[in-house]
Amino acid sequence: MDRLAATMQAAVAAAAPAVAAAAAAATTTTNTKYIGLAGTAGACSMLSLAVLSLADLELSLKGMPCVSQIALLLVAGLACLTGERSEASQQLSWQDEVVREYLGFAMRPGGRAAAYVLALLHGLGAHAEHVEAGKPIHSGLFGSLWGLCCFVLLLGAAVSLWAWRQPQQTALLLDTGGPPGPEEDTQSFSYERVYEPPFSA
Fold first, then answer.
1. Position with higher pLDDT, 58 vs 174
2. 46 in Cβ contact with 116 (< 8 Å)
3. Nearest CA to 120 among 150, 86, 82?
4. What percentage of residues in the chain have a pLDDT greater than 90?
5. Is residue 31 packed enough to be buried (19+ CB in 10 Å), middle (13-18) or exposed (0-12)?
6. Which terminus of the chain has fewer CB atoms gathered within 10 Å of its CB, N or C?
């Protein structure tokens, strides 16, 4: 009986690392999916705030700052959406290259989190200014949508900050080759070559 118990304990001890690794891989994959979903929702909320801001647009010279804010929300929202999509896919498109070249903050989780926080502060400030000025809110649905967009931006910022603070897990998911073995020379993978003149005198 003692021998059977010892054998069972040895089998459980041998299988425990494999079970733990499988559970960690499944959790990491699920977490990555939810992180991408929350980030995409944050980018879409930024775009929704821009569309909702169109309802408050005054067609006069006083409305010019509002137009620039709407344009900024649209550009930043599209850039963040492209960054979220780029992080989830394995291929880069021409939109990814444009965003990487001109709006590089959107390609990193920390940059997207900062954009979500700025959009959230804009949304809260615009709503507070609207209420303080005594302007009537268009409808309860409008106020609810505005509040929902601000909440989703807060969620997207929090998740992006969490993803930014967890770079090792993300890097392990993207690494398909594994660490170099002892026989591999990491310096041989360099693409830079030293210039050698064709003829030496």
1. 58
2. yes
3. 150
4. 19
5. middle
6. C
Q: Is 37 exposed, middle or buried (0-12, 13-18, 19+ CB in 10 A)?
A: middle
Helix axes 2-53, 140-164, angle to 10 degrees: 130
| Tally of CA atoms within 13 A in the half-sphere of 159 that contains its CB | 20
What average pLDDT does range 80-97 have in this prediction?
82
Q: Which tokens belong to 66?
A: 């509002």
C-alpha dihedral (141, 147, 153, 158), degrees to nearest 10 = -140
Provide the pLDDT for residue 25: 45
Spatial neighbors of 46 by CB under 8 A, at least 6 apart, are 73, 76, 77, 80, 115, 116, 119, 149, 153
| Residue in the structure block whose two tokens are 């931006």 | 153
pLDDT above 90 for 115: yes
Tokens of 118: 């700025």
pLDDT band at 29 (very low <50, low <70, confident <90, very high): low
Q: What is the DSSP string of 123-139?
A: HHHHHHHHHHTTPPPS-
> Judging by beta carbons within 10 Å of its beta carbon (0-12, 13-18, 19+), is residue 106 exposed, middle or buried?
buried
Residue with tokens 């020379």: 185
Structure tokens at 101: 């070249």
